[in-house]
Amino acid sequence: MTKPMLILIAGPYASGTDGDPALMARNLRRLEEAAWPVFQAGHIPMIGEWVALPVRSSAGATGPSDPLAAEVMYPTAERLLQHCDAVLRLPGESRGADQDVAIARDRGIPVYFSIDEVPGRPAAA
Questions:
Q1: Which of 19, 21, 77, 91 has CB 3.0 to 4.6 Å from 48, enough for a Cys bridge?
Q2: What CATH number is attached to the domain comprising 50?
Q3: How many domains does the chain have?
């Protein structure tokens, strides 16, 4: 590996939460738990919500059910994927994460389904 990859960490954020902010925060923490192992492997972790949530807020959206949210959340990930070198798809039902995987595959971007698959990680015992 000659240069670090920008790896989009994709998984459930709003899925299964019914808009409950506490459950969404829990899902974001779960996504963020993968950031350190990606970084340890020599790469740069990226989570779409890190970008989309401040954009959604600055657009004046009042929360995840605000119509502005739909104009920000999925499009942010799609734009990020123009810059990402790979996707790490975490387990769990998520239409957005599945969309990220489909976009990555269409663009020929590698998709990993386990942190152990990410280059630079030691093989699992």
A1: 77
A2: 3.40.50
A3: 1
